[in-house]
Amino acid sequence: MRKVKIADGVHMFTLNVDNVLFEGIWELASGVTLNSYVVQGEKTAIIDGVIGWDGVPETLYKSLGEIGVDPKGIDYLIVNHMEPDHSGWISNFMKIKDDFTIVCTDKAAKMVSSFYGEDRIRVVKEGDTLDLGRGKVFSFHLVPNVHWPDTMYTYEKSTKTLFSCDMFGSFGKMGDHVFDDEMTPEEDVFFECEAIRYYSNVMTTFTPMLRKAIQKARELDITTIAPGHGPLYRNNVEKIMDDYSRYSQYAEGAGKNEITILWGSMYGMTGKAIAHAETILEREGIKYNKLEMPLESESEMVATVFKSAGVIIAAPTYEYKLFPPVATALDELGRKKVSNKAAFRFGSFGWSGGAEKELAEIIERNKMKWDFVPSVEFEGSPKEEDLRKIEEGILQLIGKMKGKIVE
Ligand SMILES: Cc1cc2nc3c(=O)[nH]c(=O)nc-3n(C[C@H](O)[C@H](O)[C@H](O)COP(=O)(O)O)c2cc1C
Ligand SMILES: [Fe+2]
Ligand SMILES: [Fe+2]
User: Fold this and answer.
1) Buried b / exposed e across 209-228, counting CB within 10 Å, b at 16+?
2) Residues 47, 39 contacting (CB under 8 angstroms)
3) CA of 197 to the centre of ligand 1 (A)
4) Measured in angstroms, how far is the CA atom of residue 333 from the centroid of ligand 3?
5) Which domains can be identified in the chain, with CATH numbers?
6) 224 ligand 1 Cβ < 6 A
7) Quick one: pLDDT at residue 402?
8) Tens digits of per-residue pLDDT, 108-150?
Protein backbone atom coordinates (compact mmCIF):
# COMPACT_ATOMS: atom_id res chain seq x y z
CA MET A 1 0.00 0.00 0.00
CA ARG A 2 1.36 3.38 -1.02
CA LYS A 3 0.81 6.74 0.68
CA VAL A 4 0.56 9.94 -1.31
CA LYS A 5 0.06 13.43 0.11
CA ILE A 6 -2.62 15.26 -1.84
CA ALA A 7 -2.78 18.46 0.23
CA ASP A 8 -2.04 19.50 3.81
CA GLY A 9 -3.97 17.08 5.97
CA VAL A 10 -5.17 14.99 3.01
CA HIS A 11 -3.52 11.68 2.12
CA MET A 12 -4.29 8.89 -0.27
CA PHE A 13 -3.56 5.24 0.40
CA THR A 14 -3.53 3.15 -2.72
CA LEU A 15 -3.20 -0.55 -3.25
CA ASN A 16 -2.61 -2.38 -6.54
CA VAL A 17 -4.70 -5.51 -6.85
CA ASP A 18 -3.90 -8.29 -9.30
CA ASN A 19 -5.36 -11.67 -10.17
CA VAL A 20 -8.83 -10.66 -9.18
CA LEU A 21 -12.21 -11.29 -10.72
CA PHE A 22 -13.67 -7.85 -10.06
CA GLU A 23 -17.32 -8.10 -9.00
CA GLY A 24 -16.75 -11.85 -9.34
CA ILE A 25 -16.97 -11.48 -13.15
CA TRP A 26 -14.36 -9.23 -14.71
CA GLU A 27 -10.99 -10.72 -15.44
CA LEU A 28 -8.66 -7.71 -15.33
CA ALA A 29 -5.44 -8.34 -17.24
CA SER A 30 -3.99 -5.07 -15.93
CA GLY A 31 -5.46 -5.19 -12.43
CA VAL A 32 -7.07 -2.37 -10.49
CA THR A 33 -6.20 0.02 -7.68
CA LEU A 34 -8.18 0.54 -4.52
CA ASN A 35 -7.78 4.06 -3.16
CA SER A 36 -8.77 5.39 0.23
CA TYR A 37 -8.27 8.81 1.72
CA VAL A 38 -7.59 10.23 5.16
CA VAL A 39 -8.48 13.82 5.98
CA GLN A 40 -7.16 15.35 9.20
CA GLY A 41 -8.59 18.37 10.98
CA GLU A 42 -9.06 18.34 14.74
CA LYS A 43 -10.98 15.19 14.03
CA THR A 44 -9.83 12.53 11.57
CA ALA A 45 -11.93 10.97 8.83
CA ILE A 46 -11.22 8.09 6.52
CA ILE A 47 -13.07 7.98 3.22
CA ASP A 48 -13.72 4.60 1.59
CA GLY A 49 -11.30 2.68 3.74
CA VAL A 50 -10.02 -0.09 1.53
CA ILE A 51 -7.75 -2.78 2.73
CA GLY A 52 -7.00 -5.23 0.00
CA TRP A 53 -9.05 -8.06 -1.14
CA ASP A 54 -8.98 -10.36 1.83
CA GLY A 55 -10.69 -8.21 4.44
CA VAL A 56 -7.62 -7.89 6.63
CA PRO A 57 -6.82 -4.22 7.32
CA GLU A 58 -3.39 -4.55 8.89
CA THR A 59 -1.74 -2.96 5.84
CA LEU A 60 -4.03 0.04 6.16
CA TYR A 61 -3.37 0.39 9.90
CA LYS A 62 0.38 0.19 9.30
CA SER A 63 0.22 2.83 6.56
CA LEU A 64 -1.88 5.11 8.75
CA GLY A 65 0.75 4.80 11.46
CA GLU A 66 3.40 5.91 9.00
CA ILE A 67 1.70 9.28 8.57
CA GLY A 68 1.15 9.60 12.29
CA VAL A 69 -2.50 8.55 12.37
CA ASP A 70 -3.40 6.07 15.06
CA PRO A 71 -6.25 3.95 13.64
CA LYS A 72 -7.85 4.18 17.07
CA GLY A 73 -7.87 7.96 16.59
CA ILE A 74 -10.18 7.83 13.59
CA ASP A 75 -13.45 9.59 14.36
CA TYR A 76 -15.41 9.24 11.13
CA LEU A 77 -15.69 6.52 8.52
CA ILE A 78 -17.15 8.13 5.46
CA VAL A 79 -18.79 5.46 3.36
CA ASN A 80 -19.49 6.98 -0.06
CA HIS A 81 -20.74 3.62 -1.27
CA MET A 82 -21.37 0.44 0.66
CA GLU A 83 -19.92 -2.04 -1.83
CA PRO A 84 -17.39 -4.09 0.13
CA ASP A 85 -14.44 -3.03 -2.08
CA HIS A 86 -14.78 0.28 -0.20
CA SER A 87 -16.27 -0.72 3.13
CA GLY A 88 -15.17 -4.33 3.71
CA TRP A 89 -12.86 -3.41 6.57
CA ILE A 90 -15.60 -2.00 8.82
CA SER A 91 -16.21 -5.26 10.64
CA ASN A 92 -12.51 -5.45 11.54
CA PHE A 93 -12.36 -1.78 12.56
CA MET A 94 -15.28 -2.39 14.93
CA LYS A 95 -13.03 -4.79 16.83
CA ILE A 96 -10.31 -2.21 17.54
CA LYS A 97 -12.46 0.82 18.33
CA ASP A 98 -15.98 1.43 19.53
CA ASP A 99 -16.44 5.21 19.48
CA PHE A 100 -16.61 6.20 15.85
CA THR A 101 -19.31 7.42 13.53
CA ILE A 102 -20.08 6.10 10.08
CA VAL A 103 -21.23 8.85 7.74
CA CYS A 104 -23.36 7.75 4.79
CA THR A 105 -26.66 8.14 2.97
CA ASP A 106 -29.88 6.62 4.30
CA LYS A 107 -29.74 3.88 1.67
CA ALA A 108 -26.18 2.99 2.69
CA ALA A 109 -27.17 3.06 6.38
CA LYS A 110 -29.63 0.23 5.84
CA MET A 111 -26.91 -1.83 4.17
CA VAL A 112 -24.21 -0.98 6.72
CA SER A 113 -26.61 -2.41 9.24
CA SER A 114 -27.52 -5.52 7.24
CA PHE A 115 -23.98 -6.28 6.03
CA TYR A 116 -22.02 -5.44 9.18
CA GLY A 117 -24.60 -5.25 11.97
CA GLU A 118 -23.38 -1.73 12.67
CA ASP A 119 -25.56 1.20 13.67
CA ARG A 120 -23.19 3.97 14.83
CA ILE A 121 -24.29 5.92 11.80
CA ARG A 122 -24.90 9.53 10.93
CA VAL A 123 -27.15 9.72 7.88
CA VAL A 124 -26.46 12.66 5.59
CA LYS A 125 -28.67 14.27 3.00
CA GLU A 126 -27.85 16.40 -0.02
CA GLY A 127 -25.75 19.41 0.98
CA ASP A 128 -25.20 18.38 4.61
CA THR A 129 -21.81 19.34 6.02
CA LEU A 130 -19.35 17.95 8.53
CA ASP A 131 -16.70 20.19 10.11
CA LEU A 132 -13.53 18.34 11.16
CA GLY A 133 -11.94 21.49 12.57
CA ARG A 134 -8.76 23.25 11.37
CA GLY A 135 -10.56 24.39 8.25
CA LYS A 136 -11.49 20.97 6.91
CA VAL A 137 -15.19 20.94 6.08
CA PHE A 138 -16.99 18.29 4.05
CA SER A 139 -20.20 18.59 2.13
CA PHE A 140 -22.08 15.55 0.85
CA HIS A 141 -23.79 15.21 -2.51
CA LEU A 142 -25.98 12.27 -3.43
CA VAL A 143 -25.34 10.48 -6.72
CA PRO A 144 -27.74 7.54 -6.55
CA ASN A 145 -27.19 4.51 -8.77
CA VAL A 146 -23.54 5.17 -9.46
CA HIS A 147 -23.74 2.23 -9.48
CA TRP A 148 -25.48 1.25 -6.24
CA PRO A 149 -28.46 3.23 -4.96
CA ASP A 150 -26.57 4.45 -1.88
CA THR A 151 -23.74 6.37 -3.51
CA MET A 152 -22.65 9.90 -2.64
CA TYR A 153 -19.78 12.29 -3.32
CA THR A 154 -17.79 13.77 -0.46
CA TYR A 155 -16.40 17.24 -1.19
CA GLU A 156 -13.79 18.98 0.98
CA LYS A 157 -14.26 22.71 0.75
CA SER A 158 -10.85 24.16 1.71
CA THR A 159 -8.89 21.99 -0.73
CA LYS A 160 -11.74 21.80 -3.29
CA THR A 161 -11.26 18.04 -3.48
CA LEU A 162 -14.02 15.76 -4.74
CA PHE A 163 -13.83 12.24 -3.31
CA SER A 164 -15.87 10.66 -6.06
CA CYS A 165 -15.75 6.98 -5.08
CA ASP A 166 -16.51 4.77 -8.12
CA MET A 167 -17.40 7.76 -10.28
CA PHE A 168 -14.51 8.91 -12.53
CA GLY A 169 -12.70 5.70 -11.66
CA SER A 170 -10.67 3.49 -13.91
CA PHE A 171 -9.16 0.02 -13.89
CA GLY A 172 -5.42 -0.56 -14.26
CA LYS A 173 -2.68 -0.67 -11.67
CA MET A 174 -0.79 2.53 -10.96
CA GLY A 175 3.00 2.74 -11.01
CA ASP A 176 4.89 5.68 -9.54
CA HIS A 177 2.52 8.17 -11.14
CA VAL A 178 -0.89 8.75 -9.58
CA PHE A 179 -1.85 12.27 -10.76
CA ASP A 180 -2.97 13.03 -14.32
CA ASP A 181 -0.21 15.65 -14.71
CA GLU A 182 2.51 13.11 -13.92
CA MET A 183 1.44 10.55 -16.51
CA THR A 184 3.57 9.78 -19.57
CA PRO A 185 1.79 9.75 -22.96
CA GLU A 186 1.84 5.92 -22.78
CA GLU A 187 0.20 6.00 -19.35
CA ASP A 188 -2.43 8.44 -20.68
CA VAL A 189 -3.32 5.92 -23.41
CA PHE A 190 -3.28 3.04 -20.92
CA PHE A 191 -5.61 4.76 -18.46
CA GLU A 192 -7.99 5.93 -21.17
CA CYS A 193 -8.29 2.31 -22.23
CA GLU A 194 -8.72 1.18 -18.63
CA ALA A 195 -11.31 3.90 -17.91
CA ILE A 196 -13.34 2.67 -20.89
CA ARG A 197 -13.03 -0.88 -19.57
CA TYR A 198 -14.17 0.30 -16.14
CA TYR A 199 -17.10 2.36 -17.40
CA SER A 200 -18.26 -0.38 -19.76
CA ASN A 201 -17.87 -3.25 -17.29
CA VAL A 202 -19.18 -1.60 -14.13
CA MET A 203 -21.15 1.53 -14.95
CA THR A 204 -22.73 1.40 -18.37
CA THR A 205 -26.08 -0.05 -17.23
CA PHE A 206 -26.58 3.17 -15.22
CA THR A 207 -25.69 5.68 -17.91
CA PRO A 208 -28.65 8.08 -17.30
CA MET A 209 -27.69 8.32 -13.59
CA LEU A 210 -24.03 8.81 -14.47
CA ARG A 211 -24.96 11.77 -16.62
CA LYS A 212 -26.66 13.33 -13.60
CA ALA A 213 -23.57 12.63 -11.51
CA ILE A 214 -21.31 14.27 -14.12
CA GLN A 215 -23.58 17.32 -14.02
CA LYS A 216 -23.46 17.40 -10.23
CA ALA A 217 -19.65 17.37 -10.33
CA ARG A 218 -19.63 20.17 -12.88
CA GLU A 219 -21.62 22.32 -10.47
CA LEU A 220 -18.95 22.04 -7.76
CA ASP A 221 -15.77 24.12 -7.74
CA ILE A 222 -13.20 21.31 -7.98
CA THR A 223 -9.41 21.41 -8.17
CA THR A 224 -8.80 17.70 -7.50
CA ILE A 225 -10.87 14.62 -8.27
CA ALA A 226 -9.88 11.71 -6.03
CA PRO A 227 -11.68 8.51 -7.10
CA GLY A 228 -11.82 5.13 -5.43
CA HIS A 229 -10.05 3.41 -8.36
CA GLY A 230 -7.32 4.69 -10.67
CA PRO A 231 -5.57 8.03 -11.16
CA LEU A 232 -6.35 11.38 -9.53
CA TYR A 233 -7.08 14.45 -11.62
CA ARG A 234 -5.76 17.89 -10.69
CA ASN A 235 -4.31 19.34 -13.87
CA ASN A 236 -7.50 19.33 -15.88
CA VAL A 237 -10.49 17.99 -13.96
CA GLU A 238 -12.74 18.76 -16.92
CA LYS A 239 -10.97 16.10 -18.97
CA ILE A 240 -12.21 13.10 -17.01
CA MET A 241 -15.70 14.63 -16.87
CA ASP A 242 -15.65 15.06 -20.65
CA ASP A 243 -14.29 11.53 -21.07
CA TYR A 244 -17.07 10.08 -18.90
CA SER A 245 -19.56 12.10 -20.88
CA ARG A 246 -18.18 10.58 -24.09
CA TYR A 247 -18.35 7.07 -22.62
CA SER A 248 -22.00 7.71 -21.79
CA GLN A 249 -22.48 8.28 -25.54
CA TYR A 250 -20.67 5.03 -26.35
CA ALA A 251 -23.24 3.25 -24.18
CA GLU A 252 -25.97 4.56 -26.45
CA GLY A 253 -24.52 3.74 -29.87
CA ALA A 254 -21.71 6.21 -30.51
CA GLY A 255 -18.14 4.97 -30.69
CA LYS A 256 -14.66 5.36 -32.03
CA ASN A 257 -14.17 4.95 -35.77
CA GLU A 258 -13.59 1.22 -35.29
CA ILE A 259 -15.43 -1.99 -36.09
CA THR A 260 -15.36 -4.94 -33.75
CA ILE A 261 -15.79 -8.39 -35.24
CA LEU A 262 -17.46 -10.52 -32.57
CA TRP A 263 -17.02 -14.00 -33.92
CA GLY A 264 -17.01 -17.74 -33.46
CA SER A 265 -16.59 -20.55 -35.96
CA MET A 266 -16.56 -24.30 -35.38
CA TYR A 267 -15.04 -25.58 -38.62
CA GLY A 268 -13.86 -22.42 -40.34
CA MET A 269 -16.76 -21.85 -42.78
CA THR A 270 -17.74 -18.55 -41.20
CA GLY A 271 -14.00 -18.03 -40.69
CA LYS A 272 -13.50 -17.92 -44.50
CA ALA A 273 -16.00 -15.08 -44.75
CA ILE A 274 -14.25 -13.26 -41.89
CA ALA A 275 -10.96 -13.40 -43.78
CA HIS A 276 -12.73 -11.79 -46.72
CA ALA A 277 -14.32 -9.15 -44.45
CA GLU A 278 -10.87 -8.27 -43.15
CA THR A 279 -9.56 -7.57 -46.65
CA ILE A 280 -12.52 -5.23 -47.24
CA LEU A 281 -11.95 -3.41 -43.94
CA GLU A 282 -8.26 -3.04 -44.72
CA ARG A 283 -9.05 -1.74 -48.19
CA GLU A 284 -11.47 0.79 -46.68
CA GLY A 285 -8.88 1.86 -44.07
CA ILE A 286 -11.14 1.06 -41.11
CA LYS A 287 -9.50 0.01 -37.87
CA TYR A 288 -10.97 -3.26 -36.63
CA ASN A 289 -10.75 -5.51 -33.59
CA LYS A 290 -11.40 -9.25 -33.58
CA LEU A 291 -12.92 -10.97 -30.57
CA GLU A 292 -13.11 -14.74 -30.82
CA MET A 293 -15.71 -16.13 -28.49
CA PRO A 294 -15.50 -17.87 -26.09
CA LEU A 295 -11.73 -17.28 -25.92
CA GLU A 296 -11.96 -13.58 -25.14
CA SER A 297 -12.56 -12.43 -21.57
CA GLU A 298 -15.94 -10.95 -20.75
CA SER A 299 -14.23 -7.72 -19.68
CA GLU A 300 -12.38 -7.29 -22.96
CA MET A 301 -15.44 -8.24 -25.00
CA VAL A 302 -17.75 -5.70 -23.33
CA ALA A 303 -15.12 -2.91 -23.41
CA THR A 304 -14.20 -3.43 -27.06
CA VAL A 305 -17.73 -3.62 -28.44
CA PHE A 306 -18.77 -0.69 -26.22
CA LYS A 307 -16.16 1.69 -27.66
CA SER A 308 -16.74 0.72 -31.33
CA ALA A 309 -19.11 2.60 -33.60
CA GLY A 310 -19.70 -0.56 -35.67
CA VAL A 311 -20.08 -4.25 -34.85
CA ILE A 312 -19.83 -7.27 -37.14
CA ILE A 313 -21.33 -10.44 -35.71
CA ALA A 314 -19.81 -13.40 -37.53
CA ALA A 315 -21.21 -16.67 -36.24
CA PRO A 316 -22.89 -19.81 -37.58
CA THR A 317 -26.04 -21.67 -36.64
CA TYR A 318 -25.71 -24.18 -33.82
CA GLU A 319 -28.62 -26.41 -32.78
CA TYR A 320 -31.12 -24.17 -34.59
CA LYS A 321 -29.79 -21.09 -32.82
CA LEU A 322 -26.92 -18.62 -32.85
CA PHE A 323 -23.48 -20.07 -32.00
CA PRO A 324 -23.78 -20.05 -28.18
CA PRO A 325 -20.60 -18.17 -27.14
CA VAL A 326 -21.57 -15.31 -29.44
CA ALA A 327 -25.20 -15.41 -28.27
CA THR A 328 -23.98 -15.25 -24.66
CA ALA A 329 -21.74 -12.27 -25.44
CA LEU A 330 -24.65 -10.42 -27.06
CA ASP A 331 -26.87 -11.18 -24.08
CA GLU A 332 -24.21 -9.73 -21.78
CA LEU A 333 -24.08 -6.56 -23.92
CA GLY A 334 -27.86 -6.43 -23.65
CA ARG A 335 -27.78 -6.69 -19.87
CA LYS A 336 -25.28 -3.83 -19.88
CA LYS A 337 -27.72 -1.83 -22.04
CA VAL A 338 -25.20 -1.25 -24.81
CA SER A 339 -27.73 0.08 -27.30
CA ASN A 340 -28.11 1.52 -30.80
CA LYS A 341 -24.88 0.12 -32.25
CA ALA A 342 -24.61 -0.05 -36.04
CA ALA A 343 -24.27 -3.77 -36.80
CA PHE A 344 -24.05 -6.44 -39.49
CA ARG A 345 -24.20 -10.22 -39.18
CA PHE A 346 -23.08 -13.00 -41.45
CA GLY A 347 -22.63 -16.70 -40.81
CA SER A 348 -22.76 -20.24 -42.17
CA PHE A 349 -25.41 -22.91 -41.65
CA GLY A 350 -25.72 -26.58 -42.57
CA TRP A 351 -29.37 -27.36 -43.26
CA SER A 352 -32.00 -25.24 -41.50
CA GLY A 353 -30.40 -22.04 -40.23
CA GLY A 354 -31.85 -20.51 -37.06
CA ALA A 355 -29.07 -18.18 -35.90
CA GLU A 356 -30.80 -15.19 -37.41
CA LYS A 357 -34.04 -15.81 -35.52
CA GLU A 358 -32.24 -16.04 -32.21
CA LEU A 359 -30.19 -12.95 -32.93
CA ALA A 360 -33.40 -10.98 -33.45
CA GLU A 361 -34.81 -12.40 -30.19
CA ILE A 362 -31.73 -11.37 -28.19
CA ILE A 363 -31.78 -7.84 -29.58
CA GLU A 364 -35.53 -7.55 -28.95
CA ARG A 365 -35.53 -9.15 -25.48
CA ASN A 366 -32.81 -6.79 -24.26
CA LYS A 367 -34.31 -3.74 -26.00
CA MET A 368 -30.92 -3.11 -27.58
CA LYS A 369 -32.24 -1.29 -30.67
CA TRP A 370 -29.14 -2.16 -32.69
CA ASP A 371 -29.33 -0.84 -36.22
CA PHE A 372 -28.61 -3.81 -38.52
CA VAL A 373 -27.88 -3.83 -42.21
CA PRO A 374 -29.38 -6.97 -43.88
CA SER A 375 -27.63 -10.14 -42.73
CA VAL A 376 -25.88 -12.58 -45.06
CA GLU A 377 -26.35 -16.29 -44.40
CA PHE A 378 -24.80 -19.01 -46.53
CA GLU A 379 -24.94 -22.79 -46.74
CA GLY A 380 -21.62 -24.38 -45.89
CA SER A 381 -18.70 -22.54 -47.42
CA PRO A 382 -19.27 -18.94 -48.60
CA LYS A 383 -19.54 -18.65 -52.41
CA GLU A 384 -18.47 -15.74 -54.61
CA GLU A 385 -21.98 -14.32 -54.44
CA ASP A 386 -22.00 -14.50 -50.61
CA LEU A 387 -18.64 -12.74 -50.40
CA ARG A 388 -19.93 -10.00 -52.67
CA LYS A 389 -22.97 -9.54 -50.42
CA ILE A 390 -20.71 -9.42 -47.38
CA GLU A 391 -18.67 -6.69 -49.03
CA GLU A 392 -21.89 -4.79 -49.71
CA GLY A 393 -22.99 -5.26 -46.08
CA ILE A 394 -19.70 -3.92 -44.76
CA LEU A 395 -19.91 -0.84 -46.97
CA GLN A 396 -23.45 -0.21 -45.70
CA LEU A 397 -22.26 -0.68 -42.13
CA ILE A 398 -19.49 1.89 -42.64
CA GLY A 399 -22.15 4.24 -44.00
CA LYS A 400 -24.35 3.74 -40.91
CA MET A 401 -21.40 4.44 -38.59
CA LYS A 402 -20.84 7.90 -40.06
CA GLY A 403 -23.20 9.77 -37.75
CA LYS A 404 -22.07 7.85 -34.68
CA ILE A 405 -18.34 8.51 -34.49
CA VAL A 406 -17.18 10.30 -31.33
CA GLU A 407 -13.45 10.03 -30.69
C1 LIG B 1 -23.09 -29.06 -32.93
C2 LIG B 1 -23.61 -28.46 -34.22
C3 LIG B 1 -24.92 -28.08 -34.32
C4 LIG B 1 -25.42 -27.56 -35.52
N5 LIG B 1 -26.71 -27.19 -35.60
C6 LIG B 1 -27.21 -26.72 -36.79
C7 LIG B 1 -28.57 -26.40 -36.95
O8 LIG B 1 -29.36 -26.52 -36.01
N9 LIG B 1 -29.01 -25.92 -38.14
C10 LIG B 1 -28.17 -25.75 -39.18
O11 LIG B 1 -28.58 -25.26 -40.23
N12 LIG B 1 -26.86 -26.08 -39.08
C13 LIG B 1 -26.37 -26.57 -37.91
N14 LIG B 1 -25.05 -26.92 -37.79
C15 LIG B 1 -24.20 -26.82 -38.99
C16 LIG B 1 -23.33 -25.59 -38.96
O17 LIG B 1 -24.10 -24.42 -38.91
C18 LIG B 1 -22.48 -25.63 -40.22
O19 LIG B 1 -21.59 -26.74 -40.13
C20 LIG B 1 -21.70 -24.36 -40.46
O21 LIG B 1 -21.00 -24.48 -41.70
C22 LIG B 1 -20.70 -24.11 -39.35
O23 LIG B 1 -19.96 -22.98 -39.64
P24 LIG B 1 -18.52 -22.78 -38.97
O25 LIG B 1 -17.57 -23.72 -39.64
O26 LIG B 1 -18.21 -21.34 -39.23
O27 LIG B 1 -18.71 -23.08 -37.52
C28 LIG B 1 -24.56 -27.43 -36.62
C29 LIG B 1 -23.22 -27.83 -36.50
C30 LIG B 1 -22.75 -28.34 -35.32
C31 LIG B 1 -21.30 -28.76 -35.23
FE1 LIG C 1 -18.88 -0.03 -6.65
FE1 LIG D 1 -15.47 0.40 -6.27
Assistant:
1) bbeebbebbeeeebebbbbb
2) yes
3) 33
4) 21
5) 2-250 (3.60.15.10), 258-398 (3.40.50.360)
6) no
7) 95
8) 999 999 999 988 999 999 999 999 999 999 999 999 999 999 9
